[in-house]
Each structure stands twice: as structure tokens, then as C-alpha cells.
Write a structure and sequence with these properties.
By secondary structure, this protein is α/β, with parallel strands linked by helices. Helix content is 42%, strand content 9%. Helix 1 runs antiparallel to helix 2, helix 1 crosses helix 3 and helix 12 packs across helix 14. The chain is globular and about 75 Å long. The C terminus is likely disordered.
Length: 423
């Protein structure tokens, strides 16, 4: 009869990691972690690589439970994780543990490891994405919108925010590239072409904004492409605005966490709980952000993909007028000064003026009303703008489309899982 294993899986993981990182020899690792030398040698030399169970799971049972609960939580809240994001979170868990690992800490676990993880948890599955236009039609259907509003109603009720609009927020970003076209008509001679001088220089600048259901607006966050302007760019801009940069000028996870720390938490008020609603782009979410939200009694809901044109206040009534006002102001400056150009350094002041003139108390409140976010009102979204409830079913004409389930918002009564099991 073979001798029963007398060591913990975690001890084997640590021993293998120590040997692979050249911290210990096989013999010393066997002595330190109480694992047979031959067992360590077999794993290090890849003897078990082709077995069904493969090498060790690399995560402790508690860590794996936390990871799976996190995946489920994010899916239920409208932030389904991609495989790439899952790998990044595994790396984060290992880094927090401080132990050695077989994982490549730059790329994360292999696809083979992820496949085995999913096999151990058959309640999870991966869905194929669709083209955006088709996805928008599918997601903007009665079923998805009904499920989202049920989640929103249950969350607002459970948090006691029914009559507390100052504790309900929406955030999102919009980009300016200098290529935007004005919607204003111009006077010109019949039969001639009309041209208008461009004053905004090319490049990409993102503004991240956050508004509350009671009408107030939090400080803006500007993200420049490449780097911050070399010249002074804060003149004529509120002191509490935040600035950052990325290679593309778009939001990323680090920048979003920076905004959450330095703008949202300090300026969302002292009353708790707080509800923050935003789209489910993967740049908006991370383990660290969830931890900070938990610590500050901030709850999040993700909007269903491809529905923000209907359900997000900023998209419904704020960003459109804001962009048009930026164009109007730039054209006015161009008419007053033919040599005027608005580059990175001058853009913040122009944007600040446009925000002051467009994001009025009344308009912000109206944006929440028109999206049905506050007061929570499903009827504000007419079914005439949505595909029917059985739209997905009617379009499934072959096995490939049958296997694709585009509903990512669920409301099965389990609105909040224990944050104690989340990283």
C-alpha cells in the first residue's frame, strides 16, 4: 500500500517555487517544507506536466474560492471579466501572498491553467463577443433592460437610497481629438463650398466626469496622450481638477484607481452608503478598487454592455451638449483671432468654461431622470427603443449563435456576496 501524503499542497507549491527561483536547492527545499525530495524533483523536472490534474493549482483553496467569488460578483454586477483580466487578478493574488510561484509574473498563468480552473467550476463559462452594432441591438432588449432595472431597484432599496439622490453617482469619460465637427450651420454663398478653420489642435484628450442625481458635479479628471503639457495648463481651471496621462490618452486601470482615490472618495460627500454606476469597460475595475470601495462603503453597479446610450445619464444628456459647446467656443475664438489655436495647454480652460455652461443643476438632474436612474423608473425607457424580449431567441439560427448568451446582468436574489471572500 502506498504511503499516504504527509504534506500540504501549499507546502509543495512553496517548495517548487523556491527551487524554480533558485532560492533553495531541492534537498534544502525538501527539508524546509517537509516535502519528499523526489516529489519536488518530479514536479520541477516536469514529470506531471501531461497529467490531467497537472501540477499544483498554485492557489490555495481559500484563494481560489475568493477568486471565483470575485468572478461571480463582477459578472452579477455587470463587469464580466475577460481571460486576460482573470490572469492579472491571479498575479495580484500571488503578489499579495508574497510567496514564490511557478507562474510567469509578467504574463500570468497559462491558458491551460485557466482551462483547468474553469473545469473545476462548471458554473462559469466564457462567451464569445459579437460585433458592436449587433451586440447593441441584442443588449438593448427588453429582457436585459428589465434585469438591469430590477438590480437597480433592489440595490437602491437595500441601501436605503430611495430619497437620497446626493448619494447616487454616474461616472464616465469622453474623448476630444480636435476632429469633432460642429453641428451649427454657417452662412455662405449659394453654390460654393463652406469651410471652417479648425482651432482645436489634433491629439487626444479624455475627460472623466462624475455627476450626482441631486445635480452636483464632481471635479473633472483630464487625461492627456503621451504626457502632460509642458507649459502651464491649470490657469482658469478649478484647483481641484485632476490630471494624468497615458500613451493613448485613454483611461486605464491605474488612472481610474487614481481618480477613485483622489476625486471620488474625497468629493462624493461624507454620507454613506454611496452607489456608483458606470459602464463595464475593463479599465474601470480591479481588485484594489473593490477593496477601496468596500472600505469606504461604496457600492458599484455596472451598466449592461452596449446600453449606455439609453441608460447612462452622462451619455443621455451631458456629453453631447458638452462637445457641442466646446466646438462653439473654439469656433468663436477662431473668429475673434485668426491665429488662435487651442492645444493641450489651453484646452483645460476651454473645457472648464464649456462644463460650467452645460452641466447645470437642472440638466444633470434631467439626465438621471431621462435614463431612469433616479428616480428609478423602468417606464422611462420606452419599449419602442428596445428589441423584444425574445429577440435573442428569434435570431439564433445555428449552433454557433445558440451557444452565445449575451445577457450579462443577472438578478437572482444574490445581489451582494461577502466581501470577506474577495480580494
Amino acid at each position: 500500500m502506498p504511503q499516504k501524503k504527509q504534506y500540504l499542497q501549499e507546502s509543495l507549491d512553496k517548495a517548487i517555487g523556491a527551487v524554480n527561483s533558485n532560492k533553495l536547492s531541492i534537498s534544502k527545499a525538501a527539508t524546509e517544507y517537509g516535502v519528499p525530495r523526489t516529489t519536488i524533483s518530479d514536479h520541477v523536472n516536469g514529470k506531471y506536466d501531461n497529467h490531467l490534474n497537472g501540477p499544483s493549482k498554485m492557489l490555495t483553496d481559500e484563494e481560489e474560492t475568493s477568486l471565483i467569488n470575485y468572478v461571480k460578483y463582477m459578472a452579477e454586477r455587470g463587469f464580466p471579466l475577460t481571460r486576460r483580466m482573470l490572469k492579472a487578478f491571479v498575479i495580484s493574488i500571488i503578489e499579495k501572498s508574497g510567496r514564490s510561484t511557478l507562474f510567469n509574473m509578467e504574463k500570468g498563468p497559462s491558458n491551460k491553467w485557466v482551462n483547468k480552473l474553469l473545469n473545476r467550476h462548471p458554473e462559469l463559462s466564457e462567451k464569445l463577443p459579437e460585433q458592436q452594432d449587433k451586440a447593441r441591438r441584442r443588449m438593448s432588449n427588453v429582457t436585459v433592460v428589465d434585469q438591469y432595472f430590477k438590480l437597480l431597484v433592489d440595490t437602491v432599496d437595500s441601501l436605503g437610497l430611495t430619497n437620497k439622490p446626493n448619494q447616487i453617482f454616474n461616472c464616465d469619460e469622453s474623448g476630444f481629438s480636435g476632429k469633432e465637427k460642429s453641428k451649427e450651420k454657417v452662412l455662405t454663398l449659394k453654390g460654393s463650398h463652406s469651410y471652417q478653420q479648425k482651432v482645436l489642435v489634433h491629439g487626444h484628450i479624455t475627460v472623466h466626469m462624475c455627476i450626482a442625481a441631486d445635480g452636483h458635479v464632481l471635479p473633472s479628471f483630464l487625461i492627456f496622450d503621451g504626457c502632460l503639457p509642458h507649459r502651464s495648463f491649470k490657469d482658469g481651471v478649478p484647483d481641484n481638477w485632476l490630471y494624468g496621462s497615458s500613451e493613448s490618452g485613454y483611461m486605464d486601470t491605474e488612472l481610474f484607481e487614481n481618480w477613485f482615490d483622489k476625486v471620488f472618495i474625497p468629493f462624493c460627500g461624507t454620507r454613506r452608503p454611496v452607489l456608483l454606476i458606470f459602464d463595464n469597460h475593463d479599465s474601470h475595475i480591479s481588485i484594489d478598487l473593490i477593496e477601496k470601495a468596500k472600505a469606504n462603503n461604496i457600492h458599484i453597479i455596472g451598466l449592461p454592455p452596449h446600453t449606455t446610450h439609453l441608460l447612462q445619464p452622462l451619455d443621455v444628456a451631458i456629453f453631447g451638449p458638452l462637445k457641442e459647446k466646446v466646438n462653439q467656443l473654439s469656433v468663436t475664438l477662431g473668429n475673434l483671432n485668426k491665429c488662435a489655436t487651442i492645444g493641450k495647454a489651453k484646452f483645460p480652460a476651454l473645457l472648464s468654461t464649456a462644463i460650467d455652461q452645460t452641466t447645470t443643476l437642472a440638466r444633470v438632474k434631467e439626465s438621471f431622470r431621462k435614463s431612469g436612474m433616479y428616480p428609478v423608473d423602468r417606464s422611462i425607457i420606452p419599449n419602442s427603443q428596445l428589441a423584444p424580449a425574445d429577440f435573442n431567441k428569434s435570431e439564433k439560427t445555428n449552433k454557433e449563435t445558440t451557444d452565445v448568451d449575451t445577457t450579462t446582468i443577472t438578478s437572482n436574489g444574490k445581489l451582494f456576496i461577502s466581501f470577506d471572500l474577495l480580494y
